[in-house]
Design goal:
The structure holds 2 protein chains of 2 kinds. By secondary structure, chain A is mainly α. Chain A has 2 domains: 71 residues, Rna Polymerase Sigma Factor, Chain: A (Orthogonal Bundle); 77 residues. Helix content of chain A is 76%, strand content 0%. The longest helix of chain A has 25 residues. Chain A starts with a helix and ends with a helix. Chain B is an alpha+beta fold. Chain B has a domain of 95 residues: OB fold (Dihydrolipoamide Acetyltransferase, E2P), CATH 2.40.50. In chain B, 33% of the residues lie in helices and 18% in strands. In chain B, strands 1, 2, 3, 4, 5 and 6 form a 6-stranded antiparallel sheet that branches. In chain B, a hairpin with a 2-residue loop joins β4 and β5. About 32% of the residues of chain B have low confidence. The chains are: A mainly alpha, B alpha+beta. The interface between A and B is large, with 53 and 40 residues.
Chain lengths: 187, 201
């Protein structure tokens, strides 16, 4: 690819997706270094322009940003921090107005991180299962199955409440964090 | 509408923490400038590049371009074609100049991190994962993955950077997610480790 063509392509990618990419990064709790991550993502895109799948550019960029974030957090368990902050805010502001969102955020925060991720990719990033597959590095079918199961668990948590959700309790017992497992055992 | 009877995905959109994607022109412009700063090599005059590059980034750029130069040189020497670049080619120009900063106790101390590590994996884009044996500078966990530009491509080495391989033990320093070459990352030796140890807080 000629240098000028490459440059034009990168500019087109930037113009089409940089705002959404910034929002994606911020949603994942990286408010302070969102611009760093976004810039790094486009530098990776520049180096790998030929690898970017046509028609899935946005998802590909999200996937790169996701990996950069995971690397920068280095196992600090800060992924999806924004969701947890939302839940905390909702719990600490039990007003009538926030009642609805409090239910939603509490149910969302109670899910496994993998469930939260796939749900928010579908809801907030408005990605299709095929695009979610690109972000997560899994097949479209696997993404569709994960999304289907996560929706079911989230709906169950909303309908029955987090503590009463059979789905959630089972999942927390089997796959939850140590804290979630302890809580599930005492329910 | 009651949350219980709604589509969960639609319900979640209500609590989107970033419902508005719009960025101000200033933010977009600043972001593009940062990207351009990293990718522009031949279309910007050297003088203006110097003015916008931070020392850290310029060091990285020089190091990265030097790695490309070494790749080309190695290929020419063995009379084979260089590996196909994964992105646009990078003109070499004056960037073959040596590192801007030389490794020393003082410059190591200024880095975000410095550690003694053993390579456990080498991934795409020259991402190298280390088990951290000892930390000299920074707050590191037991494992770290860094971009080791010019040091993780098997037979290639760049200025003062070792050719890393799985199982190898190195003294690594750098900033952000980058392990610097230019002497900032070297094959482990007790003598050098003792020097780095002396700068540890």
């Amino acid at each position: 690819m000629e240098q000028t063509d490459a440059r034009r392509r990168l500019e087109a990618l930037f113009n089409a997706h940089h705002a959404e990419l910034m929002a994606f990064v911020r949603r994942r709790g990286a408010e302070a270094n969102a611009e760093d991550v976004a810039a790094d993502t486009f530098v990776v895109a520049w180096r790998r322009l030929d690898d970017i799948p046509a028609g899935a550019e946005r998802a590909w960029l999200f996937g790169v940003a996701r990996r950069l974030l995971a690397n920068s957090w280095r196992g600090q368990q800060r992924g999806m921090k924004a969701v947890e902050r939302l839940a905390a805010n909702a719990r600490s502001s039990p007003t009538v107005e926030t009642g609805v969102s409090s239910e939603l955020t509490t149910a969302l925060a109670a899910l496994r991180e993998a469930d939260r991720e796939v749900l928010t990719l579908a809801a907030w990033e408005e990605l299709t299962p095929a695009e979610i597959g690109v972000v997560l590095g899994i097949t479209r079918n696997a993404a569709a199955i994960r999304l289907h199961r996560a929706r079911a668990r989230f709906a169950s948590a909303l309908k029955y409440g987090v503590k009463e959700s059979r789905w959630l309790r089972t999942w927390n017992l089997v796959r939850g964090s140590p804290k979630q497992r302890r809580e599930a055992e005492h329910e | 509408m009651n949350n219980h009877s709604r589509d969960p995905i639609a319900a979640l959109r209500e609590i989107d923490p970033q419902p508005n994607h719009q960025l101000s022109p200033a933010v977009s412009g600043r972001l593009w400038a940062r990207i351009e700063e990293r990718i522009v090599t031949d279309t910007t005059a050297p003088a203006s590049r110097q003015s916008v590059f931070s020392p850290r980034r310029l060091m990285f750029a020089v190091s990265g371009v030097a790695a490309v130069a070494v790749a080309v040189a190695v290929a020419v020497l063995v009379n084979t074609s260089p590996a196909a670049p994964t992105g646009p080619s990078v003109p070499l120009g004056d960037a073959m100049a040596s590192c801007l900063d030389a490794e020393s106790a003082g410059t190591i101390a200024d880095r975000d991190f410095a550690f003694d590590g053993t390579v456990t994996a080498i991934g795409d884009e020259e991402r190298v994962t280390f088990t951290v044996n000892r930390v000299f500078v920074g707050d590191l966990g037991g494992e770290i993955t860094l971009v080791a530009s010019g040091m993780a491509a098997g037979h290639l080495t760049s200025n003062g950077g070792p050719g890393m391989e799985v199982g190898g033990r190195y003294l690594v320093s750098g900033d952000e997610d980058f392990a610097w070459s230019c002497g900032f990352t070297q094959t482990y030796s007790d003598a050098l480790a003792a020097e780095w140890d002396a700068i540890a807080p």
